[in-house]
């Protein structure tokens, strides 16, 4: 039995209701809607539909915490059991999810790359490809996937937002802003396009425009998922910081950046990043570190994404218990040693030096922080995250270098 999605792509062993449920999931996924979890019931009702269960597994893995792997396992098992009946396109998506479950991000990206070259109408696979490209810091791949979305989905809601962010990450700022504004014309609630335009304004040093733009868009975010709500408000707080309106940034933190879903790793890293930035500007954040560290210490042995690890490490070094920082670093070093050949060089040249720099900065050892950051920065994009997110480490390097220089002169 085969049904088809709204683009006419077959879904093996899915009835019409299953295909409709998949289409609803795709719309929610592309629009960052709040009803993504409805896919789990769709997959539960179709245990022999490999593609539906593969996407359900992917949603759990995208939580980016260890419990995501646990919750994904039943769907992975169904996906594997039904894979012999899958189409070639579905098998490529299954291969991507299998690699993802093994934390082989490069192989997952490769499978999605092949899939979307052969079937550019699979916009959901394109979006997942961009997800992995982003986490790998692969801006060229991010744009490849975005351009494929343009092939079939020129006037489709949410496609231009995908293209816009990819262009911004490749420093094609004027094109990115044009695409982002076009996206918002097609779908006013395209929160990812709002985000892409904000990135352009940040990169061009236009904080007043950025604050106004996001304030204009914010009314559409209330029906969105936690990630995009948190993250777009994080950008709104960044613009306040750039404008020197630090009290407003702190107010956004309290109202919008912490507390919606504290167990969510993305909320945790956003909180760490914002508190660190505010403290670098002399803001007294009071006891706001305490609940963040309580959540972060539960992530200490996971080591799923290096970008996350650097934020967790800073939180522990800044406000954790004695010994937690060294235990985290020791665990991270063991994880780096066990990494496959494709990742070992990254950890040696970038990942671990960045971790040592973060620890040193948190401990006010500015000379060591500057030294380690200098090693990590040339290929810092490999830790993942966006230019705006990684600028935290650039700023810490600059501040550490200035402090270390002053200390040396005092000696």
Along the chain, the helix and strand elements come as: EEHHHHHHHHHHHHHHHHHHHHH
The number of strands is 2
What spatial form do the alpha-carbon principal axes imply?
Answer: globular
SSE class = mainly alpha
Mean pLDDT: 96
- Which strand-content bin applies to the residues? under 5%
What strand line-up does the widest sheet have?
1-2
Runs in which pLDDT lies below 50 for 5 or more consecutive residues are: none
> From the alpha-carbon coordinates, what is the Rg to the nearest angstrom?
21 Å
Distance between the termini: 78 Å
User: How many helical stretches?
Assistant: 21
Tell me the major beta sheet: 2 strands, antiparallel
Question: Helicity level, as a percent range?
Answer: over 70%
């Amino acid at each position: 039995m085969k049904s088809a999605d709204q683009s006419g792509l077959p879904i093996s062993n899915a009835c019409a209701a299953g295909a409709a449920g998949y289409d609803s999931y795709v719309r929610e996924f592309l629009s960052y809607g709040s009803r993504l979890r409805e896919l789990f019931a769709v997959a539960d009702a179709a245990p022999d539909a490999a593609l539906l269960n593969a996407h359900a597994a992917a949603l759990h893995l995208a939580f980016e915490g260890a419990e995501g792997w646990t919750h994904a396992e039943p769907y992975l098992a169904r996906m594997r059991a039904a894979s012999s009946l899958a189409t070639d396109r579905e098998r490529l998506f299954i291969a991507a999810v299998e690699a993802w479950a093994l934390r082989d991000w490069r192989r997952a990206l490769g499978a999605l790359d092949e899939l979307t070259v052969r079937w550019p109408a699979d916009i959901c696979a394109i979006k997942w490809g961009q997800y992995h490209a982003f986490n790998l810091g692969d801006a060229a791949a991010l744009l490849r996937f975005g351009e494929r979305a343009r092939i079939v989905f020129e006037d489709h809601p949410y496609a231009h937002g995908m293209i816009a962010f990819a262009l911004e990450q490749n420093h094609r700022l004027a094109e990115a802003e044009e695409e982002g504004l076009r996206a918002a014309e097609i779908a006013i609630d395209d929160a990812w396009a709002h985000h892409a335009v904000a990135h352009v304004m940040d990169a061009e040093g236009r904080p007043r425009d950025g604050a106004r733009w996001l304030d204009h868009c914010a009314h559409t975010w209330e029906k969105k998922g936690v990630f995009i709500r948190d993250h777009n408000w994080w950008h709104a707080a960044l613009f306040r910081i750039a404008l020197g309106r630090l009290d407003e940034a702190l107010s956004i933190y309290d109202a919008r950046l912490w507390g919606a879903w504290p167990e969510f790793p993305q909320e945790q890293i956003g909180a760490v990043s914002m508190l660190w930035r505010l403290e670098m500007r002399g803001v007294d954040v009071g006891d706001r570190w305490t609940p963040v560290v309580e959540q972060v210490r539960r992530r200490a042995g996971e080591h799923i994404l290096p970008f996350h690890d650097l934020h967790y490490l800073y939180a522990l070094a800044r406000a954790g218990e004695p010994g937690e920082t060294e235990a985290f670093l020791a665990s991270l070093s063991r994880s780096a040693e066990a990494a496959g050949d494709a990742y070992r060089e990254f950890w040696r040249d970038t990942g671990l030096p960045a971790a040592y720099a973060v620890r040193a900065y948190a401990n006010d050892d500015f000379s060591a922080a500057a030294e380690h950051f200098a090693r990590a920065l040339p290929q810092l994009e490999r830790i993942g995250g966006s230019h705006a997110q990684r600028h935290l480490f650039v700023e810490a390097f600059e501040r550490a270098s200035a402090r270390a220089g002053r200390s040396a002169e005092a000696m």
